[in-house]
Write a structure and sequence with these properties.
The chain is of the alpha+beta class. The chain folds into 2 domains: 13-122 and 278-329, Fructose-1,6-Bisphosphatase, subunit A, domain 1 (Fructose-1,6-Bisphosphatase, Chain A, domain 1), CATH 3.30.540.10; 129-272, 3-Layer(aba) Sandwich (D-Maltodextrin-Binding Protein, domain 2). It is built from 11 helices and 14 strands. It has helices at 13-29, 37-52, 100-104, 150-161, 179-188, 199-204, 209-212, 223-236, 249-257, 269-272, 324-329, and strands spanning 57-63, 79-80, 88-98, 111-118, 129-135, 169-173, 191-195, 216-222, 239-245, 267-268, 277-283, 294-295, 299-308, 313-322. The strands form 2 sheets. Strands 1, 2, 3, 4, 11, 12, 13 and 14 form an 8-stranded mixed β-sheet that branches. Helix 4 (150-161) crosses helix 5. It is globular, with a radius of gyration of 19 Å.
Length: 330
Amino acid sequence: MQAAARTGLDRTLALDIVRVTEATAIAAARLRGRGDEAAADAAAANAMHRELTRLPIEGVVVVGEGEENEAPVLFIGETIGDRDHVGLQVDLAVDPLEGSTLCAKALPNALSVVAIAERGGLLKVPTIYMDKIAIGPGYPEGVVDLDASPGDNLRALAKAKGVAVAELTACLLDRPRHAKLIEELRASGAALRLIGDGDIAGVIHTTDPENTGIDIYMGVGGAPEGILAAAALACTGGQIQGRLCATNEQQRARADAAEIDDLNRKYTLADMVSGDVSITATGITDGSLLEGVRFGKNEIFTHTVVMRASTGTVRWIRTKRADKLASTES
């Protein structure tokens, strides 16, 4: 007989999700530096899907690999879990390979990420863009604002931190669309960390500026990545604001299909994430936040961070496991 479906997050589920992101990161890392983004993406997505189907959950993918007609697995709206054991009813936000180009070129900060929340706890967004601003914990609510100028935000943050603007570092994607933003940030006197990909990691870096050197994240990136980043900030006490951006007809159609009728709305952290939420990320390549997968002769080493909102805990997990593939080949 099947058990009745449960609600709320189970503390033990965190370790189950760790195994999911570890297996996903390992699958992607086997293609690290090979120059084939599509192959790495597919390997990561298939590994994550396989591992999630083994969990005792009834999970709905609200942030995934794309719309249902665009992704074979982990598409938005897919219900996933062990169908023989009805379990926790949860929302899932997944990014099997955050930073496809980073992995293909063996550049820093490629991650495998899963956020899990109580049903209805994650904002459903289409695969379009989002303008974001984010800072870490320890600041008064509303110290920065998406509608304020870059200079005003930096001055407000510097005042709240008790430092000069010149001591702040802002992180943003290195994209032509950010030319004006980059110019304004540099004119303010702040330092910039321009990243090629990986804006989930970029936002998460604001949660630990002493170690990452990142005080604030700004700019336009993926909307799905914005929800995953918001989950991390919900667990650490940070702040984020976002506004959806549809830059072409396809994206406007996606917004319409998702019944989003106000693209001018400014979303706060509370709009993006509510209730208990946990986020897990495993490093694929070395980065400021996590070390990448290491392959030994017959062993594999992974580095993972797990954050949970209800307890405010952040756990760092180093795992050593047997490399079954290496054993088979030998």
